[in-house]
Amino acid sequence: MTIEYATRYRTRSHIPAEPGRPYFIEKGKGDRAHLFGDLVTIYAGGEQTENTFNFFTVEGPKGDLVPAHSHPDTHEVFYVTDGAVRLFVEDLDGNQQERLLTPGDFGFVPKNCPHAYRMERHHSRVVGVAAGPGGTFERFFENLGVPTDDLTLPHSPVVPALGTFRTVPEQYDVRFLPDHQWHTGSACQGRPTP
Asked: Of 38, 58, 176, 178, which is least packed with CB atoms within 10 Å of its CB?
């Protein structure tokens, strides 16, 4: 059983806003948002961790490439629990690689490294953790996407207006890279980059 709290982001939340308070959340009952074809669920964020890390899941169908982006101040972890996710990453020297991650596989993307991912199997799930000196970016998902109380994937993709890509990311340590090209072995057909 969870207690619902109001936060400055939502009229209700299962996550207490103040730090230093233990809490529990039932499976799937964190703060949820639809973005593209995915369901993002936040379990812990900046308010609870004094902006040191966040913890979230992204669930989605087999689909398009998430646009290339980087986080200037945030390191990001990808841990696959269901399905398969292809992670594309470029290091600071410009070396690109991609890896198909399946349940139990882990990927680490240091700050400033361009990256993108694509769900390769229907109903794939990634556990994400982001941490860094710049704070956390978990509220990016509901501000670029649409907050939801649903426990399911969106019925149709939630594609933000182009203007949103220019404003919302600046607040959340996300820099989209519209001209980025992937030169790895897998064909990167996907969502147009903003």
From this structure: 178
Q: Which long-range contacts (CB under 8 A, 24 or more apart) does 27-30 make?
A: 28/151, 29/2, 30/56
Q: Is the pTM of this model over 0.85?
A: yes
Give the model confidence (pLDDT) of 78-109 as tens digits: 999 999 999 999 999 999 999 999 999 999 99
The whole-angstrom separation of Cα 190 and Cα 63 is: 8
Under 8 Å between Cβ of 109 and 66: no
For strand 96-101 and strand 85-90, is the pairing parallel, antiparallel, or unpaired?
antiparallel
Mapped onto helix, strand or coil, the DSSP state of residue 186 is coil
Instruction: Please state, in angstroms and rounded to a whole number, the distance separating the CA atoms of residues 33 and 35.
Output: 6
How many Cβ atoms are within 10 Å of 32's Cβ, its own excluded? 25
Half-sphere CA count of 100, side-chain side, radius 13 A? 7
